[in-house]
Specification:
50s Ribosomal Protein L17, Chain: A, elongated, three-stranded antiparallel β-sheet, alpha+beta, 6 helices
């Protein structure tokens, strides 16, 4: 769980199983609360869980500032499907505010893209009336 918390705070978005994601939310919210509290004691408590000093620095400097006006609920879980090998349910855990555009999931599968492409094509009736 310590590695998951470290990865989530480093990358701000990770993919894991549903059970781990639900547990990870509580751990990550606790670490962000420590970052908001600030101080040496809170930093040492965070270092007991997070095994990377650069991530702790990011937590106390940037993430604490980002969530300073938010009372809680710093993470969200989005169920994305099942893992191919063992059909384990998989979720994406991400920090709520400030998710970059590059980190957002791509929307639409094959059917949506095909429907959008067909909608953009002129229909046979409109082509015949235009000619």
């Amino acid at each position: 769980m310590r590695n998951l918390v470290t990865s989530l705070l480093l990358h701000e978005r990770i993919q894991t199983t549903d059970a781990k994601a639900k547990e990870l939310k509580a751990w990550a919210d606790r670490m962000i609360s420590l970052g908001k509290r600030g101080g040496l004691h809170a930093r040492r408590q965070a270092l007991q869980v997070i095994n990377n000093k650069a991530v702790v620095r990011k937590l106390f400097d940037t993430l604490a500032e980002r969530f300073k006006n938010r009372p809680g609920g710093y993470t969200r879980c989005i169920k994305v499907g099942w893992r191919i090998g063992d059909r384990a349910p998989v979720s994406v855990v991400e920090l709520v505010e400030g998710v970059s555009e590059a980190a957002k999931p791509k929307t639409g599968g094959r059917r949506r893209r095909r429907a959008a492409k067909e909608a953009s094509k002129p229909s046979a009736e409109t082509a015949a009336t235009a000619a």
